[in-house]
Automatic annotation (TrEMBL):
<dbReference type="GO" id="GO:0016787">
    <property type="term" value="F:hydrolase activity"/>
</dbReference>
<protein>
    <submittedName>
        <fullName>Glycosyl hydrolase family 3 protein</fullName>
    </submittedName>
</protein>
<dbReference type="InterPro" id="IPR017853">
    <property type="entry name" value="GH"/>
</dbReference>
<feature type="signal peptide">
    <location>
        <begin position="1"/>
        <end position="18"/>
    </location>
</feature>
<dbReference type="Pfam" id="PF01915">
    <property type="entry name" value="Glyco_hydro_3_C"/>
</dbReference>
<dbReference type="InterPro" id="IPR013783">
    <property type="entry name" value="Ig-like_fold"/>
</dbReference>
<dbReference type="InterPro" id="IPR036881">
    <property type="entry name" value="Glyco_hydro_3_C_sf"/>
</dbReference>
<dbReference type="InterPro" id="IPR008979">
    <property type="entry name" value="Galactose-bd-like_sf"/>
</dbReference>
<feature type="domain" description="Fibronectin type III-like">
    <location>
        <begin position="733"/>
        <end position="802"/>
    </location>
</feature>
<keyword id="KW-0378">Hydrolase</keyword>
<dbReference type="InterPro" id="IPR002772">
    <property type="entry name" value="Glyco_hydro_3_C"/>
</dbReference>
<dbReference type="Pfam" id="PF00933">
    <property type="entry name" value="Glyco_hydro_3"/>
</dbReference>
<dbReference type="Pfam" id="PF14310">
    <property type="entry name" value="Fn3-like"/>
</dbReference>
<dbReference type="InterPro" id="IPR036962">
    <property type="entry name" value="Glyco_hydro_3_N_sf"/>
</dbReference>
<comment type="similarity">
    <text>Belongs to the glycosyl hydrolase 3 family.</text>
</comment>
<dbReference type="InterPro" id="IPR026891">
    <property type="entry name" value="Fn3-like"/>
</dbReference>
<dbReference type="InterPro" id="IPR044993">
    <property type="entry name" value="BXL"/>
</dbReference>
């Protein structure tokens, strides 16, 4: 493994972080101005009185309003901006005397990425002494917080924000696979654990707001940020996003800020101009695909943060849109947190979109639209000063400012900043961050994210006991940079695939390694459209890889992408393997030795040649710092892969757009017969479809049951099925449930993901899997853009992928009135009626002496008899609390409502069936009439 000392050598000094040479921080943090810190409350405004906003027992709204009333315009506007942290905008790591003359002397809304170690793209992590260890970092953030609490007039704490889509961004922290990898686990509980750990480590480091999860839905596989989405299904993105937020915001340990709202992830041709302009989507697609996850996550989790995107939609920049940021986000979805702008989203209104003439107008449009906090890599003055001018000139009302500040304060109160502004357990930070239990979850996530794409002739798993030599090559074989990019931990130990294989082979097999080729060639990306010949050095390195393969029993080729080919602002024009990677793979395959291809990358790749000629393929995405261990565990059979694709693999970019879900027949075109005499004009079908993934074992599906089979739009249906492991290895199966509206008023998707469950089964084991369907799984956006569930039949499909459907059924939806009428018509006529206490009349026929119908003198109970019945005896069990004799009559009716008495008697025995005989006659009804008060009938048995 590469040790931490190796990472620190990248800093250029060749030494460990200077923080390790400083004075040891205390185990427990104590602020300086002790007179402010009272028992059970903090005197933020230093007036010696417990104001309402300082009182933890006061209501949230009262605390907000009390503080807002005390704030000046200067203090309010300072809350509406982010100050980027050390070496981004802020030049100081700790407060200085000059801060009392800076803009933030009146407070600040948030400080972003302060001392998290990130400096700039392409630079090594910061070597500032306060970056690490965790206790020192927490102490430093406390010191910054202390300035705002102790040295500003009202003492409003700052919100420390930071990135966290694959672990909190810090010099070190628990390092998870990138979000695309996490999506491929299909494991709700695991994602909640990832959120819980990320939020807990963030708070222990001093951060209070984490920019995660990303709720964008993948549509164009060329897009640079595909590595950051959970997948292509809005349902799956919503389900995993809900769990991530619940984990992050557990007990309000931090606020979660989801991004990027709205319609962000489908730019024309995946082009990434910084304003992400011109998304190519219809309004209905925006709602079905891109708004759906945000709507559900906000409503189901109480999400506290939203990052507004800097794209336009249909000519309207989202950042300046009241419709998107207020009407939809707050009024319709019920969002109650604060909106923070994505970098330069405000500035783009005048520099890119040209809908504002200058910065001042851009500020006005953004704040009016609903923006709470401007966040970008610029001085906060550039936003706050024009904002103050607008209020003083009448361009914005102060009430609008008040509304925006209320949201900011609400979040700060909810996450406990006014009750516990400091992270006081400094020693606890060292114990929590990267602790063994957290690392175990990270390894689980890495293992579960890997997808087995091909395994011809059971090439995998490899038997280490039968292998003498293993050849390893490829630009990603000994690469660790994919685990150390922005938006996550920066300098953790990383186990590469080569290191993972060597660890498994130690003492058993020899590992031969050469790189084989670089990730890209000198002419890339032009080499994607023009083939350049190999240089002598490039050819020699490929030859070395092939020579190693000839000596070995098996070759593992580790290819894919990396920071050069994928990421923010790194969209591609091709989905083929970049550089000379395919030539390397072909050379190794030509040796005739078994070849296993391992892909490490941030987007689907069109590995058509590999799929046709290479026997085994593993897709590992960016598998986190534990990725090499996870891949080796799978290669050698210590872990059975169970990940399934949440994205579609097109065969070529010429098929894009090519996604799940899709409209009927939209993914295929043209004939099916190739060649000169055929009729096929284009490549059809996916290389690998949504939901696809193999295992080292097999699974059988059976016993699909839908109950009830007919529901109304507001009822729920339960779908049950059984899955059996029919192989010889324990393994995971991701059971997938799909629906299709068979007949609808508008065109709907061919299949909609409506449920999924990752289950683990031992060989021969069977488990029942249960799904619940309700209106969110069945509704459509009709011609009037209203969400409704249309009556009709829905196909219910369960299977191992979107194309591997194993079980089918039908669920019928009827409107309420039709359903009620159907039920009434099917309901049998009750054989018993009563003059009183009708709801208990059927108790006399339930076979239980303990249940009764009770009446008083003159009350009766009537039984409808079978047509043409002749009755001459009835057995009755009476019940009376006082046990006194009671008189009764038995009457018969032949129709027309006239009853004649056929028996008169006195009850002397109670709570047992006593037969009463009389002269029989043909009758339609039999009636028992009470002639005393408070008499009960427990049971009646008619002899017909």
């Amino acid at each position: 493994m590469k040790k931490l000392i190796v990472a620190t050598l990248l800093l250029g000094s060749g030494t460990l972080l200077s923080a390790q040479k400083t004075t040891k921080v205390p185990a427990h943090y104590k602020p300086v101005k002790s007179e402010m810190y009272r028992k059970g409350w903090i005197d933020f405004n230093k007036n010696g009185v417990k104001d309402i906003y300082e009182d933890p027992a006061a209501t949230l709204d009262d605390r907000i309003e009390n503080l807002l009333q005390q704030m000046t315009l200067e203090e309010k506007t300072c809350q509406m901006v982010t100050l980027y942290g050390y070496k981004r905008v802020l030049k100081d790591d700790l407060p200085t005397p000059e801060w009392k003359q800076m803009l933030w002397k009146d407070g600040i809304g948030a400080i972003d990425e302060h001392l998290n170690g990130f400096q700039q793209w392409g630079l090594p992590p910061s070597d500032n002494e306060n970056v690490w260890p965790a206790s020192r970092h927490a102490w430093a953030l406390n010191e910054v917080q202390r300035f705002f609490v102790e040295d500003t007039r009202l003492g409003i704490p700052v919100d420390f924000t930071n990135e966290g889509i694959r672990g909190v961004e810090s010099y070190k922290a628990t390092n998870f696979p990138t979000q695309l990898g996490l999506g491929h686990t299909w494991n709700r509980e695991l994602i909640r654990q990832v959120g819980l750990i990320t939020g807990r480590e963030a708070r222990m480091l001093g951060y209070t707001n984490v920019y995660a999860p990303i709720l964008d839905v993948g549509r164009d596989q060329r897009w640079g940020r595909y590595e950051e989405v959970y997948g292509e299904s809005p349902y799956l993105v919503a389900e995993l996003g809900i769990e991530m937020v619940r984990g992050l915001q557990h007990n309000h340990q931090v606020a979660a800020t989801a991004k990027h709202f709205a319609a962000y992830s489908n730019n024309k041709g995946a082009r990434e101009g910084m304003s992400r302009v011109d998304p190519q989507m219809s309004p209905r697609e925006v709602e079905n695909i891109h708004i759906y996850p945000f709507k559900r996550v906000i409503r189901e989790t109480g999400l506290l943060g939203i990052m507004s995107s800097y794209n336009d939609y249909d000519g309207i920049p989202v950042q300046g849109s009241y419709y998107w940021l207020t009407t939809r986000l707050r009024q319709e979805m019920g969002f109650r947190g604060y909106v923070v702008s994505d970098s330069d989203a405000v500035e783009y209104l005048y520099t890119k979109h040209n809908t504002a003439k200058d910065m001042k107008e851009a500020v006005r449009q953004s704040v009016e639209a609903g923006l709470n906090v401007r966040c970008t890599f610029r001085s906060p003055d550039s936003f706050v000063l024009p904002l103050r001018e607008l209020v003083k000139e009448g361009g914005l009302s102060e009430e609008v400012i008040n509304d925006r500040v209320r949201d900011i304060l609400r979040v700060k109160f909810l996450i406990g900043l006014f009750d516990s502004p400091y992270q006081t357990d400094l020693a606890g930070a060292d114990n929590e961050v990267e602790k063994a239990a957290n690392e175990a979850v990270a390894l689980q996530a890495s293992r579960e994210s890997v997808v087995l794409l091909k395994n011809a002739d059971n090439t995998l798993p490899l038997n280490i006991d039968k292998i003498k030599k293993i050849a390893v090559c490829g630009p990603n074989a000994d690469e660790e940079g994919y685990a150390l990019t922005h938006y996550g931990p920066l300098a953790v130990e990383v186990t590469t695939v080569l290191e993972g294989i060597r660890e498994k082979a130690q003492g058993k097999a020899e590992v031969l390694y050469t790189k084989g080729c670089d990730l890209v060639d000198a002419h890339w990306p032009e080499s994607e459209i023009i083939e350049y010949p190999l240089t002598p050095d490039e050819q020699a390195e490929i030859d070395r890889a092939a020579a190693n393969a000839r000596q070995a029993d098996v070759a593992v080729v580790v290819l894919g992408g990396g920071q050069r080919t994928c990421g923010e602002n790194k969209s591609r024009t091709s989905l083929d393997l970049p550089g000379h990677q395919l030539k390397l793979l072909q050379a190794v395959q030509a040796t005739g030795k078994p070849v296993v291809l391992v892909l490490i990358n941030g987007r689907p790749l069109s590995v058509n040649w590999a799929d046709k000629f290479v026997p085994a393929i593993l897709e590992a995405w960016y598998p986190g710092s534990k990725g090499g261990t996870a891949v080796a565990d799978i290669l050698f059979g210590d872990y059975n892969p169970g990940g399934k694709l949440t994205v579609t693999f097109p065969k070529t970019v010429g098929q894009i757009p090519f996604n799940f879900p899709c409209k009927p027949a939209s993914q295929i075109d043209g004939g099916k017969n190739p060649g000169a005499d055929g009729n096929m004009s284009r490549i059809n079908g996916a290389l690998y479809p949504f939901g696809y993934g193999l295992s080292y074992t097999t699974f059988e599906y059976s016993d699909l049951e839908i109950s009830p089979k007919v529901i109304t739009p507001d009822q729920k249906a339960t779908v049950r099925l059984k899955v059996t492991n029919t192989g010889k290895r324990a393994g995971d199966e991701v059971v997938q449930l799909y629906t299709r509206d068979i007949l609808s008023s508008i065109t709907t998707y061919e299949k909609n993901l409506a449920g999924f469950e990752r289950i683990r089964l031992k060989p021969g084991e069977t488990k029942e899997v249960t799904f619940t369907l309700d209106r969110k799984h069945l509704e459509l956006l009709n011609a009037d853009m209203k969400w409704i569930v249309e009556p009709g039949e829905f196909a219910i499909m369960a299977g191992a992928s979107s194309e591997d459907i194993r079980l089918n059924g039908i669920l019928t939806v009827e409107d309420y009135r039709s359903r009620l009428h159907a039920l009434e018509s099917q309901k049998p006529v009750s054989p018993v009626t009563a003059s009183t206490d009708m709801e208990n009349a059927t108790n006399v026929l339930d076979g239980k002496i303990s249940t009764v119908w009770q009446g008083n003198k003159g009350d009766y109970i009537t039984f409808a008899l079978k047509n043409g019945a002749k009755v001459d005896e009835v057995s009755i069990a009476f019940k009376r609390d006082n046990k006194l004799p009671a008189e009764f009559e038995i009457q018969l009716s032949g129709g027309g409502g006239q009853f004649l008495t056929v028996y008169s008697g006195t009850v002397s025995q109670y709570e047992q069936l006593i037969p009463y005989s009389f002269k029989g006659t043909t009758a339609s009804d039999l009636r028992i009439v009470l002639n005393d008060d408070r008499v009960g009938i427990a049971e009646v048995v008619l002899k017909e």
